[in-house]
C-alpha cells in the first residue's frame, strides 16, 4: 500500500508539472503587474498580495528561481510511517520556538540568481536536524554550496533533486559552510544575496549564475580540509503523503523539505494563508523548508515554510500555505533525514 501511495503521489507531481508546462502557453495579466496584484487583492483570498519583485523582471528569471525537479521513477529513499496512537497534536507548532537554541532554523537564505532552491532547502534541513538531534548543542551548518557544486556535476544552478541531495548526505557526506561571505566553515555559499526589486537598494542587483564546478577544497582562508570535514547523514527518507504523518515528523524530528508547484500569484505573496487563485498560471517546481504548522483565524489550517528569496520577500522571508488539501502538491513530496 505504501508503494501504491508513493506511485500515486509521484504521478500527481508529474501531472502538476505537466499542468505548469501547458499553462505557460496561455498568459493573461503579467504576474508582476499592478493590475494583477490588485486583481488578487479583490478576490477575497485568505492572503494578501503585494510587490516583491520589480514589475520589469522577465518571467525567465522568475522561472530560474524554481529549481526543483521531480523524479519520474522512485528514488532509493524509503517512505516512513510514524506509529500513531491518535493523541491530540498541538494546534500550532513552530520549530523556531520549540528548538530555540538552534540558530539555523531561523535563518532566511537567499539562493541568489541560481536555481538552487533544492540544495539550499536541503542543506538547511540537514543543519536544523544536526542541532535538534544533538540536544541543541551543535550549531554546525552544512554547506548548500557543496551540494550545488559536487552532488551531481551539471545540476547546480540548472536545478536538482531534493531526494538525491539527501542521498548524497548519507552516501558521501556534506562539508560545513553557511551563507555568502561567512567564515568558520569549509564552503560558504559563493553567490551573494541580491535585490529583486529596483526600490531595494540595500542589496546588489540580481544576475544569473552558471553552475559552479566541483571544487574539493575548502574556501581560501579556512583551516579545514575538505575530505576531513565531510559530515554524514545516518538516514534519509520520504514522509508518507498524509497531513498527520507530516505533522508527526516535524514535531519528532524537525523541519522537512517540501517540493511544490509555484503559480504566477505566489510571487506576490505578502501575508496570510496562501491558496492558489484559479486564474494563476503555472511557472515551475520549487523546494522550501517547512518549519511548522498552525491555524489562522480559527479557519485556515496552514503549513509554515521558509522561502529562499531573502527576507525582503513575502512575510520577512516566510509564508503560510493551506494545509490538508495538498495545495499545489505541497504535501506530495516531503523529504527528511537523520544525522
UniProtKB/TrEMBL annotation:
Entry-linked SUPFAM superfamilies: Cysteine proteinases
Domain Peptidase C1A papain C-terminal: residue ranges: 89-338
Keyword Translocase: no
InterPro entries: Papain-like_cys_pep_sf (IPR038765), Pept_his_AS (IPR025660), Peptidase_C1A (IPR013128), Peptidase_C1A_C (IPR000668), Propeptide_C1A (IPR012599)
Regions annotated as coiled coil: none
GO function term, MF aspect, one: cysteine-type endopeptidase activity
Single Gene Ontology BP annotation: proteolysis
Keyword annotations of the record: Disulfide bond, Hydrolase, Protease, Signal, Thiol protease, Zymogen
Ranges annotated as spanning the membrane: none
Signal peptide feature range: 1-25
Family: Belongs to the peptidase C1 family.
Protein known as: Peptidase C1A papain C-terminal domain-containing protein
Native species: Callosobruchus maculatus
Organism lineage string: Eukaryota, Metazoa, Ecdysozoa, Arthropoda, Hexapoda
